[in-house]
Design a protein that fits this description.
The protein is an alpha+beta fold. It has helices at residues 26-43, 91-104, 135-148, and strands at residues 4-19, 63-68, 78-85, 114-129, 158-162, 175-181. 25% of the residues lie in helices and 32% in strands. A 6-stranded antiparallel beta barrel has the order 1-3-2-5-6-4.
């Protein structure tokens, strides 16, 4: 695997923040669930009688996370998990998604979800294949690429994009995009 540099434009997301070890934290799983409930509410709107302007058939985007903390102490993690939304999603669509979700899958965590735009800008990223616990090896390769090409990280956080469903895929076959923002 090798690292590459790319510029990631502004995109819009449903997001929710949290703290702690995601491996033994029911709250983390509940937060993932509320993000998917909202995302599927948008995806299924035409089947529920409302077709947003610019709507197209699509697959719900993968879960992503922005992480900070000490990888050796997962209890120190602070995170923002999110699911990207298509460009046609606007404040009206967001409002309808919340109404649909509150009716079909009421959840107190809905009050914590935000709809926001995030721009990563210039980044170094790589595809990590394997357990999340093995990510430090990939981060080392990314840091080497940064150093070798005279870049600098602009934040202590990193982004992960989960291309595999960890509940269905063996740990050694998980696929995750790892990303650092750089200058």
């Amino acid at each position: 695997m090798s690292s590459c540099q790319d510029t990631i434009p502004k995109m819009q997301y449903f997001t929710i923040n949290g703290k702690g070890n995601p491996n033994d934290n029911k709250d983390f799983q509940d937060k993932i669930g509320v993000l998917y409930s909202l995302s599927y509410a948008v995806r299924m709107m035409p089947k529920n009688g409302y077709t947003p302007n610019g709507y197209f058939e699509y697959t719900v985007y993968p879960l992503e996370g922005i992480w900070s903390g000490n990888a050796l102490d997962k209890n120190s993690f602070e995170y923002k998990i999110m699911i990207r939304q298509p460009n046609f999603v606007n404040s009206e669509v967001v409002e309808k998604a919340f109404k649909i979700t509150k009716k079909k899958k009421p959840n107190p965590l809905l009050e914590q979800v935000k709809f926001e735009e995030i721009e990563d800008g210039l980044c170094v990223q790589m595809l990590h294949i394997g357990s999340y616990d093995d990510e430090p090896k990939s981060f080392e390769q990314m840091q080497k690429f940064i150093d070798d090409n005279n870049y600098k990280r602009i934040s202590a956080t990193h982004r992960e994009i989960y291309l595999s469903d960890f509940t269905k895929v063996e740990k050694d076959k998980l696929k995750t995009v790892l990303r650092y923002s750089i200058k």
